[in-house]
Design goal:
By secondary structure, the chain is of the alpha/beta class. The chain is built from 18 helices and 15 strands. The longest helix is centred in the N-terminal third of the chain and has 17 residues.
């Protein structure tokens, strides 16, 4: 793309504000001298950030790939989630020690200097292995394109959900004829539901788990409900802040009311309280294996459209190609083949609660039978995402700067109107800031297709 490369010192300077584990070496990559697996003639070095249930499901899919493709040796490494992962990935790409394939949150792609730290996908190679644009939600695919080139291959979307217990809602008369939570279309209806559920729940428990003290989840909730109100962030050129403080204050007041009306408790162990009998919790879909393991009879829907428009916060795990000076040959093709295989075989991945990005999987009878996944799959069509700017994305600067503001308003240490103005100020500061990866502001980052 005609831009000078980054060296390791520039990358370290750019990410100096991040909290990084004291292990910036590349032990996870240092496997090039290892002997190839028996029968293999090509190696793919693959980095991911999946642990827990996610990790087990990913390993199962990789083992299935290895069994079907004995000629390809997959050397997978799981690194620490969050900024430590992205720091190592940036340093590896800038130092020409990058893995052949890696996982990245889609919201982080724009800030990862596509064309310098990321290489574009070969659309022809993906098509060769059965993956094409028509197999994905159009908006999801569009987010993966920068400057007219595909820099991310979506694996899923992961969303915030309204989990509910069947036993409590049945007792409260809040289940419909199909045994699902009654629909909610306004803030008044939602608080009526909470009031009714509270009368039927166990004493000593909160009614709704809201993660009041979690800056990331508070920010994600804000993004969802601000999107429901039709709120915007920046103009098309990323030169002006269009953030609506009146709409923001309305959302912040809504979140705060859960605490002031006694439905949510700051600092409560939200998932645990749900398992112990609380009627509702707002959690990410990754909690599905946790609640399945607790053998609860529960359901999960997208966040209620209390402001009249459906919108649920969504991020996406995607595959990327970290920059390599010579990205050609058998290893590159094998990386395309592996990514395409995992995307196409993501029904196993859906067991972790994630919504597969690959449309044929979504439409399959096997996926349609999965519960509660089939109750919230509609979230694919109303994703509330952060703006497509370099400082957005999971654990990005946008969440770091604004999450604590939302959290303070929900917890009651700041007024919603004042918090809304502080968010707008943070947005203005970030919009004028330069991406440490390439020294460009959002407006200078190039046209996004």
């Amino acid at each position: 793309m005609g831009r000078p490369g980054l060296n390791r010192r520039q990358v370290l300077a750019g990410i100096g504000g991040l909290t990084v584990a004291g292990s910036l070496g590349f032990a996870a990559v240092g496997t090039g001298a290892d002997a190839l697996a028996s029968g293999a003639d090509t190696r793919v070095r693959y980095w991911n950030l999946f642990s827990g249930g996610d990790g087990y499901n990913m390993i199962a899919m990789l083992d299935a790939f290895r069994k079907e493709h004995p000629d390809i040796d997959v050397k997978d490494s799981t690194l620490q989630w969050g900024n430590p992962y992205y720091t190592k990935l940036a340093m590896a790409a800038s130092g020409n020690r990058a893995p052949d394939l890696a996982v990245m949150h889609l919201g982080r792609v724009t800030g990862f200097s596509p064309g310098r730290l990321l290489d574009p996908w070969d659309i022809g190679l993906l098509a060769k292995y059965g993956v094409k644009e028509a197999d994905f939600n159009p908006e999801l695919w569009k987010r993966a394109v920068v400057d007219g080139k595909l820099y991310a291959l979506p694996l899923d979307i992961h969303v915030q959900l309204c989990f509910y217990r069947h036993d409590v809602l049945k007792k409260a008369g809040l289940l419909d004829a199909d045994g699902r939570m009654v629909p909610v279309t306004s803030t008044d209806e939602w608080f009526d539901v909470l009031k009714t559920a509270k009368k039927a729940q166990k004493k000593g428990l909160q009614t709704l788990g809201l993660h009041v003290n979690d800056l990331n989840i508070q920010w994600w909730m804000f993004v969802a409900f601000y999107t429901q109100l039709g709120g915007t962030w920046f103009d098309a050129a990323d030169t002006e802040v269009t953030f609506d403080t009146d709409k923001a204050a309305q959302v912040l007041e809504f979140l705060r009311r859960h605490v002031t009306d006694g439905y949510s408790i700051s600092g409560a162990a939200d998932a645990e309280q749900f398992i112990n009998g609380a009627p509702f919790t707002w959690e990410g879909n990754w909690s599905v294996p946790v609640f399945d393991g607790a053998k609860l009879k529960y359901g999960a829907t997208p966040l209620p459209p209390v402001f009249g428009k459906q919108a649920t916060h969504a991020e996406s795990h995607s595959f990327v190609l970290p920059h390599q000076a010579e990205r050609t040959g058998a290893a590159n093709e094998a990386a395309h083949r592996l990514a395409a295989y995992v995307v196409k075989h993501a029904r196993k991945w859906a067991l972790g609660g994630h919504i597969p990005a690959y449309t044929p999987t979504l439409k399959s009878a096997a996926y349609q039978r999965m519960t509660p996944q089939n109750e919230y799959v509609s979230a694919m069509s109303h994703q509330a995402t952060e703006p497509k700017v370099w400082f957005a994305g999971s654990t990005g600067l946008l969440a770091q700067r604004t999450g604590p503001i939302v959290m303070s308003s929900t917890a009651g240490s700041s007024r919603p109107d004042a918090a809304a103005r502080r968010i707008k100020g943070a947005l203005a500061t970030l919009l004028a800031s330069k991406n440490p990866m390439d020294g460009r502001t959002a407006a200078q980052g190039g046209a996004v297709a």
